[in-house]
Amino acid sequence: MRYISTRGSAPTLDFRDVTLAGLAKDGGLYLPESWPSFSAAQIAAMQGLSYVETAVAVMLPFVEGTLSEDDLRTLCTQAYGRFAHAAVVPLAQLDERNWLLELFYGPTLAFKDVALQLLGLLFERFLTGSTQQVTVVGATSGDTGSAAIDALAGRAGVDVFMLHPKGRVSDVQRRQMTTVIAPNIHNIALEDASFDDAQALVKAMFNDPAFSGKFALSAVNSINWARLMAQIVYYFYAAVRLGAPERPVAFSVPTGNFGDVFAGYVAAKMGLPVAKLIVATNVNDILHRALSAGDYSQGTVVPTPSPSMDIQVSSNFERLLFDLGGRDGHALADQMRGFETSKAMRLTNAQREGAAALFASDRIDLDDMALAMRWACEASGQVIDPHTAIGLAAARRADLPADVPIVTLATAHPAKFRDAVERATGQRPVLPARMGDLFEREERYASLPGTFEAVTAYIAERASAR
């Protein structure tokens, strides 16, 4: 399997190199040259498989030429052995058609663990025996940071610099990052900044030859293909338990950076019968506007109780636009350069029509988010976090046939957002016992201005050069 950039000018890479590279040298994002395809019989054969064996079956085509089936199985067994539920990502039924796919049983209580526990092991494997020192630079709206830090803390060959917008993540999210005291972990709180600002800084570092030339930069954000690859698995795992391939299944995905829902798109391209992918946004609704009206124009980020979705530039949307636009990297590069200059873009007819075939979208405000949290609690005894509630609200008003099950991705444990959950439901969720002392742990992080100069100077003083 070989990987190409969405912008058409970067070198083609194998799976090892694409994992360590993160962002392509031309500023684009990597994708496989072609999508693997599974027959109905191959999908049916996944029924009854464990999560590890499902992961091996789904991911094996993507790692061809780099990892053997036994290698992949060993890595998946180790990655998912740390999850607190035997099913890894169990399904919970809410009513006759609505289900939750609970993705928060990993060590940091969020769906990012599903991918990042594996990514940490991939980094370690690919760097073992090498003199290469990788500098991981990431931006987080809350959950990626803690999941990446847990996966990479103490690992040889990797320095981690994680940027988060100061005061715009929950107290639990912040402490999960800043209380990991390891010599290779560096947390940076950006003052007066949004996640979009942090994400823009990360991309600028990759695209600045003077800086990127000094360090072997890599990424753990969902711009890293290996992240998305691991997330494809749970779409297959859930769908076959609800009748696939004999019947289609819909998924409602609380969405900010478009990575999680793009993994669902890839699953559909591989042959999984996906009835619809519902893109659920909060009031930061650039993706809803793009999918419903073709208007991909950047607004001002509004802080909300669902901070992981407080995003106005969705990096992974570029991958969808590339695939729907005939995989013309040079045309997409021109389109994205126009967006980066004007902060506005119209989708082409081909992109709009291609998206409409599989995607629906909805914008969920604070009242509807709270109502969804209350309904889940009262109707089925399920306490859910604000992000999951946005997905559930969109699922419950989706216009789909009555016999199509809808799976809402439950992306975080409710205890990560205790205040918002308590306001909506009257219940204050408790952290699991393994994290019960979180608020007694020492914190360590640097507060910096959100400027390229300040952040790169900080990293340059602490990172290992090539």
From TrEMBL:
Record family assignment: Belongs to the threonine synthase family.
Listed EC numbers: 4.2.3.1
Domain Threonine synthase N-terminal: 2-80
Keywords: Amino-acid biosynthesis, Lyase, Pyridoxal phosphate, Threonine biosynthesis
Protein name, as recorded: Threonine synthase
Top enzyme class: lyase
Pfam family of the protein (one): THR4_C
Domain of life of the native organism: Bacteria
Residues annotated as domain Tryptophan synthase beta chain-like PALP: 96-325
PANTHER family with a match to the protein in the record: THREONINE SYNTHASE FAMILY MEMBER, THREONINE SYNTHASE-LIKE 2
Cofactor requirements of the protein: pyridoxal 5'-phosphate
Catalysed reactions, as listed in the record: O-phospho-L-homoserine + H2O = L-threonine + phosphate
Source organism per UniProt: Sphingomonas glacialis
InterPro entries (alphabetical): Ser/Thr_deHydtase_PyrdxlP-BS (IPR000634), Thr_synth_N (IPR029144), Thr_synth_N_sf (IPR037158), Thr_synthase-like (IPR004450), Threonine_Synthase (IPR051166), TrpB-like_PALP (IPR001926), TrpB-like_PALP_sf (IPR036052)
PROSITE patterns: DEHYDRATASE_SER_THR
Pathway in which this enzyme or protein is active: Amino-acid biosynthesis; L-threonine biosynthesis; L-threonine from L-aspartate: step 5/5
Record keyword Transmembrane helix present: no
Gene3D superfamilies, per database record: 3.40.50.1100, Threonine synthase, N-terminal domain (3.90.1380.10)
